[in-house]
Amino acid sequence: MGLGASCRPSCSWRFSCWESSRFSSSSRFDGSGPGRPRCRIGPDLDARCRSNSRCTADASESECERILSMKCPTLVLTLATVVLVLTGALGLRAQSGPNDAPRYENGADLVFPADYRTWTFLGAGIGMTYEEEGGAGNGQMFSNVFVNPSSHVHFMETGAWPDGTTFMLEFRQSDSAASINQAGRFQTGLAFLEAEVKDSRFEDGWAFYQFGPGGNLRDVAPRMTGDAVEPCIKCHTEHTAVERTFVQFYPTLLEVAREKGTLKPGF
Length: 267
Description:
alpha+beta; Chalcone isomerase; 8 helices; 5-stranded antiparallel sheet; 3-stranded antiparallel sheet; globular
């Protein structure tokens, strides 16, 4: 006997959604007739189906096949909802841009990126200075350079920096006498922190920031202007290998820039 019309709308689609086999092994033959399998009923049937004898009655094999092949609308609807939610979330993320982009206050003051040390590390130097020989320099101080990851990915693909590129330059003290060390120097406390940002909104296309000494970092750094920034602009214009950046000191980037043809003449 097939399922009655009153039962199908409420329970017929429930038969196979959570079942791993098509027929119950314990009731494939129930004595009512050779080769007449009983449709396997899931444990979640509602009260109306449980009380309806036609839901548990024997059915022909073709009827069982038809019932068991029906889709589960609840499952399909749930999966469709998940897909829509994920698609919407990815769309919002794409519209909002990378989450490592610079954040500003008042349109120009840079908010300190507290996670910058998780960014891509480009390189380090010790005792480097832009001054002529005999200048004060930075002594035995280390300088470490980090760049936001999305801009690094873009550079590796194109050899150029996208708008929103943010460099963090930290200066750290050094020491040599500690633990088992017998020679050379290692980094210690943070001494000073600076930033450089590529932003086409600014007249120069780039902006420079100082977050201050390690023990008293600013939460927000004002954009350097006037006489204070002139030496930075001059140096980063005349002596950099790619745009306003010292790619010549970052060997992996230097190879990419050479391959992409973005090096300035002379490098």
